[in-house]
């Protein structure tokens, strides 16, 4: 980080906060219009190639500030600053609403069980990030960041399957750490994931993946546009608008635009042409994984359409089969598959308290040892 970017980032963030405080002084409709212009403008500008060091999480902060105004919250500047700057949810969410935090502020007690639960969840998230996602990143790097001549079809398919697992372990790991940190100081943030890779359809997937962003777009974009209340064509258009906005929120590039259109198309087909929920369990799970894996290609570093297509067209002498992967990568892949298969079944709650405590300490210790001296791998979602 340059010296300029070092001082520019906090100044940009403070400017966003100060602008929203001033917008909050406007009356009614003028406040909501100004809030949209100020916060959406900040997100758009952050996606352009400007000589400004934008802080990570600017889009999350802007969306939360916008919800503050659209919900007509009337609390003071200090409450707004607390809401926007609450450290566990910066810089990658979850997108908590103000009332979800404000309702917990009065008479909150810093209890030992809160600290214990928070530490346990933080340890679980760190384990998923450091010992699973960062190991799986080696496969993704080999697929999406190597010359086409060095990629075989087998490697391309492996990367196609592994990247959704890596992204899920990375992003949900961060979320577990954020929720754990918040719980340790007495706050409960909303969950952002609910076993998404065991969804029965793409529609079900988006009810389980990045839940708070989906709820935000539903409440402030999809429903105001009319939702599904005005016929099939209007519903398809509204769905397309929502996923195009979601795509542009993640990044500027035709790859992201195609990702948004891909999701809107599949969701429309699920509504009118086929019903994956009625298929055999194995078939619908493979269907969801395939649809999601193809859609996630831009997030693997192939935001350009040509690069995305090229990622699966590699032919050449170099191959990477499962047998050639390092043991740690294989163990990480196995752990990711086991977690996806078993999560959401309440298995941890059935363990004795002392077992959960010991397991949390072991996971935390092993993860910290892995962090020490290891090459830093940034959170994937920090780039969006």
What does the largest sheet look like?
none
* Relative strand content: under 5%
Distance, first to last CA: 18 Å
This entry's quaternary arrangement is single chain
Rounded to an integer, what's the Rg over CA atoms? 22 Å
Shape: globular
Low-confidence region ranges: 311-321
Give the number of helices.
15
Helix content: 55-70%
The secondary-structure element order is HHHHHHHHHHHHHHH
Structural description of this entry:
With 384 residues, this protein is mostly helical. The chain folds into two domains: 3-85; 112-310, no CATH class. 65% of the residues lie in helices and 0% in strands. The chain has helices spanning 3-23, 28-47, 58-70, 77-85, 98-102, 112-144, 153-184, 202-208, 211-225, 232-250, 254-272, 281-295, 305-310, 327-342, 353-371. Helix 9 (211-225) crosses helix 10 and helix 10 runs antiparallel to helix 11 (254-272). The longest helix has 33 residues, at 112-144. The radius of gyration is 22 Å and the shape is globular. It starts with a helix and ends in a 13-residue tail after the last helix.
């Amino acid at each position: 980080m340059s010296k300029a970017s070092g001082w520019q980032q906090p100044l940009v963030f403070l400017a966003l906060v100060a602008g929203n405080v001033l917008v909050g002084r406007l009356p009614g409709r003028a406040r909501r219009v100004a809030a949209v212009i100020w916060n959406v403008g900040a997100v758009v500008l952050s996606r352009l190639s400007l000589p400004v060091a934008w802080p990570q999480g600017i889009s999350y902060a802007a969306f939360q500030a916008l919800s503050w105004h659209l919900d007509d919250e009337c609390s003071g500047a200090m409450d707004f600053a607390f809401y926007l700057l609450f450290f566990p949810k910066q810089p990658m969410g979850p997108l908590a609403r103000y009332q979800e935090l404000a309702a917990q502020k009065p008479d909150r007690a810093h209890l030992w069980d809160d600290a214990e639960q928070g530490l346990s969840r933080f340890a679980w998230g760190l384990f998923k990030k450091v010992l699973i996602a960062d190991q799986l990143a080696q496969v993704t790097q080999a697929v999406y960041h190597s010359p086409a001549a060095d990629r075989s079809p087998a490697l391309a398919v492996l990367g196609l399957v592994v990247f959704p697992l890596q992204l899920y372990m990375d992003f949900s790991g961060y979320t577990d750490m954020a929720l754990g940190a918040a719980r340790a100081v007495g706050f409960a943030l909303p969950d952002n994931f609910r076993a998404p890779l065991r969804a029965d359809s793409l529609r079900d997937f988006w009810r389980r993946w990045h839940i708070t962003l989906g709820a935000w777009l539903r409440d402030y974009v999809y429903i105001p546009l009319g939702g599904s209340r005005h016929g099939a064509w209007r519903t398809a258009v509204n769905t397309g608008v929502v996923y195009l906005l979601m795509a542009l929120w993640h990044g500027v590039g035709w790859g992201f635009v195609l990702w948004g259109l891909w999701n809107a198309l599949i969701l429309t087909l699920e509504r009118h042409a086929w019903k994956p929920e009625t298929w055999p369990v194995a078939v619908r799970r493979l269907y969801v994984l395939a649809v999601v894996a193809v859609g996630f290609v831009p997030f693997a570093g192939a935001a350009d359409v040509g690069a995305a297509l090229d990622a699966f067209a590699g032919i050449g002498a170099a191959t990477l089969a499962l047998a050639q992967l390092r043991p740690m990568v294989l163990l990480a892949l196995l752990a990711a598959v086991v977690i996806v298969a078993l999560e959401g079944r309440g298995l941890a709650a059935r363990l004795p308290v002392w077992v959960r405590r010991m397991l949390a300490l072991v996971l935390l210790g092993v993860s910290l040892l892995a962090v020490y001296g290891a090459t830093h791998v940034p959170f994937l979602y920090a780039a969006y």
